[in-house]
Write a structure and sequence with these properties.
Layout: H1 2-28, H2 34-59, H3 62-65, H4 70-102, H5 104-110, H6 114-133, E1 142-144, E2 151-153, H7 162-196, H8 201-208, H9 212-241, H10 248-271, H11 274-281, H12 284-299, H13 304-307
């Protein structure tokens, strides 16, 4: 019961936040850069991952979850595909933010083209769901998780080639994105440090208008969150490859941490950026809530003398 309540809370929060991000980007922001389209795509992927992954687990009975059914396998495929797709989006977005800072003129000249934007996003989906397809065609398989609460990968190694599959996805879907995100963060910080050392730094930044501070904050938080969210599953993968018995508590914790990524992605990429927050404050619902708070404050004014 407590687990279902936790899942429902994540599902509700994820859908609201990601839907809000999509609404603001698609309908409120007139100038849609490649970053905006990437964030929209990430939000749509996170919503799909939440709905397809959480609803079957919340609504089905415990006896149903003890069986490996087509619904269970489909849910595992969709969740895993969306998770890798989101990781790929974040990795590509971190790389592009560095390109913006290091080669701004190349970015504005090349990445403005719609076919470039569409191709990059399509490649992220292709990469993510390609890895999710392999277990369906024989390289490993989808199986009940060790805690029997969801359909996941073959952590028990019941199929002989599952270990090689885990090693491959650990390298290409965890270590490689971590290296790229960390490298782009280091490069971004180095670029900004060099520019801050120049005498004409302010004029240079104003003319390019690339929002370096926001980009750096986003890259920093993306890197920290990536390691925080995906380390449990990386540990599970290493233990599986080494054929060490995996505690069910670690499996449950890894799954819960991974589900939190559907919330942290949109918070980091949208809600800490000043331009996005300004658009958020202009929403009618937010203005209505702020007006109510003002009326309450007017009825019950705050007196400093009360504290004294």
């Amino acid at each position: 019961m407590a687990l279902n309540l936790f899942l429902f809370t994540i599902l509700f929060t994820s859908v609201i936040l990601n839907a809000t991000a999509c609404y603001i980007i698609l309908l409120k922001i007139k100038k849609k850069e490649i970053t905006h389209l990437f964030i929209t795509s990430i939000s749509l992927t996170n919503m799909l991952e939440s709905i397809v992954g959480f609803i079957p687990q919340i609504t089905t009975s415990e006896n149903f979850l003890l069986e490996r059914t087509p619904l269970c396998i489909s849910s595992g495929f969709a969740v895993f595909g969306c998770a890798i797709t989101s990781i790929t989006h974040i990795t590509a977005l971190s790389f592009m933010r560095t390109i913006v800072m290091k080669y701004p003129f190349f970015y504005y000249k090349t990445c403005k083209k719609m076919w470039v934007k569409a191709t990059l996003i399509a490649m992220c989906y292709f990469y993510g769901f390609s890895w999710a397809t392999f277990p369906l065609i024989g390289w490993s398989k989808y199986e009940l998780d060790l805690d029997k609460k969801r359909c996941s990968l073959d952590w028990k190694l019941t199929q002989s080639d599952s270990a090689s599959y885990f090693l491959t996805i650990l390298i290409f879907c965890n270590l490689l994105p971590a290296i790229v995100i960390s490298t782009t963060l280091y490069t971004s910080r180095k670029i900004i440090s060099k520019r801050n050392a120049r005498e004409d730094c302010q004029n240079h930044q104003a003319s390019l208008d690339i929002l370096e501070n926001d980009y750096l904050n986003v890259c920093l938080l993306s890197t920290a969150t990536f390691f925080f969210i995906w380390t449990p599953y990386a540990v599970i993968g290493v233990l599986t490859i080494l054929k060490i018995v995996i505690p069910t508590q670690l499996v449950t914790a890894g799954a819960m941490f991974a589900k939190l990524s559907t919330i942290t992605n949109v918070v980091i990429n949208c809600f800490i950026v000043k331009s996005f927050k300004n658009q958020l404050l202009e929403l009618r619902l937010i203005q209505y809530i702020r007006n109510i708070n003002k009326k309450i404050s007017a009825v019950h004014p705050y007196h400093d003398s009360t504290l004294n």
